[in-house]
Amino acid sequence: MKSLNHIKILTVAVLVSLMYCTYSQPYYVSTTGNDNNTGTIDNPFATIEKAIGEAEPGETIYVRGGTYQLVTTINISKDGAENAKISLISYPGERAILDFSDQAFGGRGIKLTGDYWHIKGIDITGAGDNGMKIEGGSNNIIEHCAFYRNRDSGMQLDKGAANNKIINCDSYFNADPTDYGDADGFAPKMDVGSGNWFYGCRAWKNCDDGWDGYLRGTDDVTNSAENCWAFENGYLENGTDPGSQANGNGFKMGGSDDKTLKHNFTLKNCLAFSNKAKGFDQNNNKGSMTLYNCTGHANLTANFRISQELAAGKVLIVKNCASFNGSAEIGSFAQQDKNSWLSPFTVTESDFISLDETAAYGPRKADGSLPSINYMHLVAGSDLIDAGVDVGLPYAGALPDLGCFETGLTTFTRDHSLSVNITCYPNPAKNSVSLRFNNVVTGKAKAELYDISGRLIQSYTNNTFISGEREISLDLSDIKPGIYFITLKTGQTTLAVTKIVKQE
């Protein structure tokens, strides 16, 4: 008996020991820290590199606010895990600025070769080359970061970088002396991989292009941008034109040295204005291109230029797009529907609430989303309202509007850091609808039904587990016919939003 009690005591001791050994707290970095410290909030590290060396999958590094004067590239090569990303985040309520202005020409700010990182709320400026280069790194989330005054593209993705999410980021005033021919805002190019997605990002006054998808070393990759703005590219920060080598396109979707490579690119609800050349540019891309509800305004060469024949089997789809004060040059091979340059539409200044673009440069909202603006929003009574065709994007009226801003559409803030796949069926629905989604979060999920004004109608929490997925059934029998939105939530976090139509 004594021996057994001894074993029990030893077992408890080992378990307690293991518990403390595996427990981890966040790491902290501060401008007043020291790398000989323990990395706690009261004894922070001095360098991000030190914290990266300590962090394991699922752990967080908080970078305290202030300016960090740096000359050496921050290399991130270790991996997180699919359900345990490593997070590098500005401390809540503060903003960390990584200033590489004294770095030698050609050096990067952050070079990310690792997978499964979440980098949020950090400014990168003055780098000798790219502010951030995702070189082969995949399944990363870069959120609410800013890249400015770097000496090449603000952010570049290449070497097979795939499935990265770039959310609510800004890239501006990037320029590469002395030729000023390569500094883009966002550059998923060269030998980039597929599945990279830009959401809610802005690129302005980069000396080359806002987005550049030029390929060299790979072929037939697929990437996309949604709810993104590109404006005044092709100019320096002071507004001067650095020369013809500075292209100045808003969204350059591809191109290659031999004019044969295919970059399949999808743009949804994107806005391009006042760029030195084209707003939406094919270049010589031979891949498929899809443009839904995009708006071009006052781009000097053309608002849209996608006119060259594509490779066999590739398609060009342009629907619900709007163009004002600039041409739309679309090849006869395109699948077009309900674009503003097609009959019966005539676009004039009176179609828009405002043509003053000033607010587009304004600060982001507290959650990192784009500022609310009136620029290029349609005025009540415009014949571009409810004039489109359903392409699967949310809309508020009988049919979608033309252009990137939908009149009367309620917006919901969602957490894009969680990859939630949902299906909603049947849709349109009559008496009931089922929402099925992959089980990526713990705890009970709920579905909330809203009308188009944003008024909550009903909540549903009847989670059912089916073949590794969850399903919530929504009873619509007492709901009036019309257009509604379903938000999928866990706690107060919105994971996804989808639209349904309730029929008689």
Average predicted local confidence, pLDDT: 91
What profile does the largest beta sheet have? Answer: 12 strands, parallel
Shape: globular
Question: Strand tally, please?
Answer: 40
**Strand line-up of the largest beta sheet:** 1-2-5-8-11-14-17-20-23-26-29-32
Structure classification = mainly beta
- Which regions have little confidence, pLDDT < 50, spanning 5+ residues? 1-23
CATH C-level name of one domain: Mainly Beta
CATH superfamily of one domain: Single-stranded right-handed beta-helix, Pectin lyase-like
Count every helix, treating DSSP H or I runs of 4 or more residues as helices.
Answer: 2
Q: Estimate what percentage of residues fall within beta strands.
A: 25-35%
Q: How much helical structure, as a percent, in the residues?
A: under 10%
Distance between the termini: 75 Å
What is the correct CATH architecture of one domain? Answer: 3 Solenoid
Rg result: 25 Å
Task: Predict the CATH topology of one domain.
Answer: Pectate Lyase C-like
Give keywords:
504 residues; mainly beta; 40 strands; Immunoglobulin-like; ten-stranded parallel sheet; Pectate Lyase C-like; disordered N terminus; twelve-stranded parallel sheet
